[in-house]
Amino acid sequence: MTTKISYAIAFLLGMGMVFLGARFFFSPEVATAAFGIRFNANGDYSFHHIKGIRDIFSGILLCALVLMRERRALGVMLFVATIIPVSDMITVLSKSYTSVQQAIPHIVATIICSVVGTLLLIDKPSKKATLKQQEILN
Question: Where are the domains of the chain?
């Protein structure tokens, strides 16, 4: 049951990442403000496109790992990827014009990635799933 809930959370997280990445393409000023920083692009949205495509890639990869039921790979990805929202949170909090309020999405993402990643790594596959894997290998 824990695995199914973790898969659902990871899939929603992946879809959210795709949405956030797309927003950096289609509404870069809004995306930057929602991220928690100010950035005067002067019409050059190169940074936004780089950030956007990375978020889209990460989201698609999360969703693909869920759909392929790659529990351990998904767990490793989420746990290791915790470094991203932690770094983002530090960046946001280092600005003189921000407060903890702008860091809350990054804090929540850190908690989700670390908790769900850990759950997926420590959860043992069911006997039914193990038997199905053995049948596939034979």
Answer: 2-126
